[in-house]
Specification:
The chain is rod-shaped and about 195 Å long. Helices cover 88% and strands 0% of the residues. With 188 residues, it is mostly helical. The protein has a domain at 36-149. Pfam families: ATP-synt_B.
């Protein structure tokens, strides 16, 4: 096998060491040319142009990065403060919610007891009205029955008197009553 460098030499890519000439291979000459140009610029420019531009760019970039970091730190601190405030408000709201919940439950129980008492009172009033109505109706019925019994008894007595009394008995009764009335006048 042949050596790789031998194949390159035979193809004309590498000139022999002892000869002088132009190298037409751009890929091989480009890094060399760039290093020569940079060396000349640094040596003759004493670092003013290239290094100043490069250091200015780096300094500007560094300043922007530092400024961004400072801004980020300030934003982070502001966010932490807002987070703490939000947490404090959350704790306050949770405590108020717990207080409202406890007060709400006790208020619900109180309202429930008031409603039960109100219903019980209303029920007692309705029961009293019912009993009064029943008693009134009973009294009314009793009075109606008494009136009918009295009317029937009176009609029966009048019928008996009318059938038993004749004119002569009637006149004697009137005379006896007048006599009693006259005796009463004399006593007075």
């Amino acid at each position: 096998m042949k050596n790789i460098t031998d194949s390159f030499l035979s193809l004309g890519y590498w000139p022999s060491a002892g000869s002088f000439g132009f190298n037409t291979d751009i890929l091989a000459t480009n890094p060399i040319n760039l290093s020569v140009v940079l060396g000349v610029l640094i040596f003759f420019g004493k670092g003013v142009c290239a290094s100043c531009l490069l250091s200015d760019l780096l300094d500007n970039r560094k300043q922007r990065i530092l400024k961004t970091i400072r801004n980020s730190e300030e934003l982070r601190e502001g966010a932490i403060e807002q987070l703490e405030k939000a947490r404090a408000r959350l704790r306050k709201v949770e405590m108020e919610a717990d207080r409202f919940r406890v007060n709400g439950y006790s208020e619900i129980e109180r309202e429930k007891l008031n409603l039960i008492n109100s219903i019980y009172t209303t029920f007692e009033q309705l029961e009293n009205y019912k009993n009064e109505t029943i008693h009134f109706e009973q009294q009314r019925m009793i009075n109606q029955v008494r009136q009918r019994v009295f009317q029937q008894a009176l009609q029966g007595a009048l019928g008996t008197l009318n059938s038993c009394l004749n004119n002569e008995l009637h006149l004697r009764t009137i005379s006896a009553n007048i006599g009693m009335f006259g005796a009463m006048k004399e006593i007075k």
